[in-house]
Amino acid sequence: DAGVTQSPTHLIKTRGQHVTLRCSPISGHKSVSWYQQVLGQGPQFIFQYYEKEERGRGNFPDRFSARQFPNYSSELNVNALLLGDSALYLCASSPGTLSYEQYFGPGTRLTVT
Amino acid sequence: QKEVEQNSGPLSVPEGAIASLNCTYSDRGSQSFFWYRQYSGKSPELIMFIYSNGDKEDGRFTAQLNKASQYVSLLIRDSQPSDSATYLCAVPPGSGNTPLVFGKGTRLSVIA
Fold first, then answer.
1. How far is B40 from chain A (nearest CA, A)?
2. Which residues, given as ranges, of chain A have pLDDT below 50?
3. Is the peptide bond before A8 cis (omega within 30 degrees of 0)?
4. Which residues, other chains included, contact A61 with Cβ-Cβ below 8 Å and sequence gap of 6+?
């Protein structure tokens, strides 16, 4: 079975630009969560979606938004990029909101210059 | 603020030894505990989870949980150079809407 997939793998953007990251969960998983991981830190929770509805939001500014589609894939959008947004963005899927077993995709490495 | 604390390391052990990785958490309501392994430049990989007090063994890995002390550990027996990675402890909060709260991770280096 295919695992979690993310695109693109790497991305370089300029300050002030906008970026869209994409994620497809494991087949049969209905919940997608997004995390940001900066070097030397553990992943920080950004959003969780289940059945196309937002179920949780971490402590990130409104420049960050996300959505989930009927096929359970998801997009993370970040507007007005800052240098500090440079990080590895991880998508994780789980069977449902009550399952804490999160399975991560390979991540998208975002560099903001 | 729910916190998960880990010693950042690096923890260096010789090949064949037992590596012991520790994690403490602040939320007494937490009921399950997860260990992830992350190789440099890669994403975290779930290796074990534990719900009950005591030990849980899976191959060379043993997770130990003590809820009274709010302490969870991961033992790696017969450590191999391929075990060299950062090990992340993750805890769902007892309340709130965050799926998992991660520690900063402990970097393990197994010396051949």
1. 10
2. none
3. yes
4. none
Count Cβ atoms below 10 Å from residue A94 Cβ, excluding itself.
22
Tokens of B3: 């916190």
CA distance B102 to chain A (A): 5
B109 DSSP β-pair partners? B12
* Amino acid occupying residue A11: L
Check: CB of residue B100 under 8 Å from CB of residue B34: yes
Residue count (chain B): 112
Give the 3-state secondary structure of B71-109.
EEEEEECCCCHHHCEEEEEEECCCCCCCCCEECCCEEEE
- Regions in chain B scoring below 70 on pLDDT: 1-2, 94-97
Selecting from A40, A42, A104 the residue whose C-beta is nearest the C-beta of B43 gives: A104
What pLDDT score does A2 carry?
81
Cα dihedral sign for A56, A12, A83, B46? Answer: positive
Classify burial at B85, counting beta carbons within 10 Å of its beta carbon; exposed 0-12, middle 13-18, buried 19 or more: buried
Q: If you count residue pairs, one on A and one on B, with CB atoms under 8 Å apart, how many are there? A: 61
Nearest to A41 among B34, B99, B104 (CB): B104
Q: What is the mean pLDDT of chain B?
A: 91
